């Protein structure tokens, strides 16, 4: 399919959320791969690595927002990234699964889906570019969150940990508004001409989803303890 026929053959907004669903599926495939091949001993040390992974995801989010990552690349890179991310998250997700129990863990995953869907729906219903003005505020907030997370590595205070996680949920919920609004603006301005142009948007929305999920898991786990 060439660039000129892409828009007429497929709705870019629908395609983005379909690719996002596939990306999340690849994450869970990576999780299952990790379950088969990652040593079980890492599960018991997962609480040590959770902050490291979160810092890595925040840095990656910051790179994508500051255009360090190209704005157009193969969707296969997104799938590869989410697959590897699923492997890296295996010990952490398994730790929370044991700590919280299957029922509560599933409810948190579903809650993440609901939060994502609500904010995506709100943004989609607004005019294109409605939330783009939040960009600079969100970027600054992301850098603040990264700094707070790094500080929390050394202090590891339960109350501060909950505050950082709550801030992360608020921030990435707002980023859903911004990312969907930006995508809608790009579509209506003709800047989405092929599948690869959607890749950065899919990646950003995936990072929004995963960061909210991990922050929710951390909050519930801390409150439980």
UniProtKB/TrEMBL annotation:
Its main location: membrane. It is found in: Membrane. The keyword Transmembrane helix applies. It is a multi-pass membrane protein. The chain crosses the membrane at residues 20-38, 44-64, 76-98, 104-122, 129-153, 159-178, 198-220. InterPro entries: Bax_inhibitor_1-related (IPR006214). Keywords: Membrane, Transmembrane, Transmembrane helix. Belongs to the BI1 family. PANTHER family: BAX INHIBITOR-RELATED, PROTEIN LIFEGUARD 4. This is Bax inhibitor-1 family protein.
């Amino acid at each position: 399919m060439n660039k000129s026929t892409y828009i007429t053959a497929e709705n870019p907004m629908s395609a983005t959320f379909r690719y996002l669903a596939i990306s999340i599926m690849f994450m869970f495939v990576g999780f299952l791969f990790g379950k088969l091949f990652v040593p079980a001993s890492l599960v018991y040390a997962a609480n040590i690595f959770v902050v490291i992974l979160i810092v890595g995801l925040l840095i990656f989010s910051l790179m994508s927002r500051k255009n360090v990552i190209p704005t157009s690349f193969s969707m296969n890179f997104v799938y590869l990234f989410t697959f590897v991310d699923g492997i890296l998250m295996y010990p952490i997700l398994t730790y929370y699964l044991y700590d919280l129990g299957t029922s509560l863990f599933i409810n948190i995953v579903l809650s993440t889906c609901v939060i994502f869907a609500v904010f995506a729906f709100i943004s989609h219903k607004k005019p294109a570019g409605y939330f783009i003005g939040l960009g600079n505020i969100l970027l600054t907030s992301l850098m603040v969150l990264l700094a707070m997370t790094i500080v929390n590595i050394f202090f590891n205070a339960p109350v501060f940990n909950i505050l950082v996680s709550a801030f992360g949920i608020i921030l990435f919920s707002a980023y859903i508004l911004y990312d969907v609004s930006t995508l809608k603006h790009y579509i209506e301005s003709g800047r989405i001409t092929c599948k690869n142009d959607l890749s950065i948007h899919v990646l950003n929305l995936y990072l929004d989803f995963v960061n909210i999920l991990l922050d929710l898991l951390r909050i519930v786990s801390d409150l439980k303890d």
